[in-house]
Amino acid sequence: DFAKLHPGGALGRRLLVRVSDVMHTGDKIPIVPESTTVLDTLITMSRGRLGTAVVVDASGRMLGVFTDGDLRRLSERGEQFYERRIGEVMTRNARTINPDAILDEVLALCEKYKITVLVAVDKDHRPVGIIHLHDVLTSKLV
Are 93 and 64 a contacting pair, CB within 8 Å? Predict the structure, then answer.
């Protein structure tokens, strides 16, 4: 109610702006099938400029993510990994968010889990967007 009565104020805007209002959508979501190589996933990640790629199954459902941190951990092991399938090395059970969630929820999840990116998924667990902590910060709501 407060947000509806005071939409122009900072608190009102924070309660009204949704993930779907600021998330990256469509071709801007770095999505790769689970059979993609790590090397090709890195190329997709570089184009997306979000430090992450969303890994999906054949029906488009999210299986996990591969992040810059995952790449560093693979590198530390000293093994050859560029030709490995991303489905073998991705982070499963990645954190997701509902596109209708308010931006404060993004901040809370990022802080709680020490992450910078959340994937917005629909009811069938298909990625519909991706939001980076910087998107929240540049929305001038924080």
Answer: yes
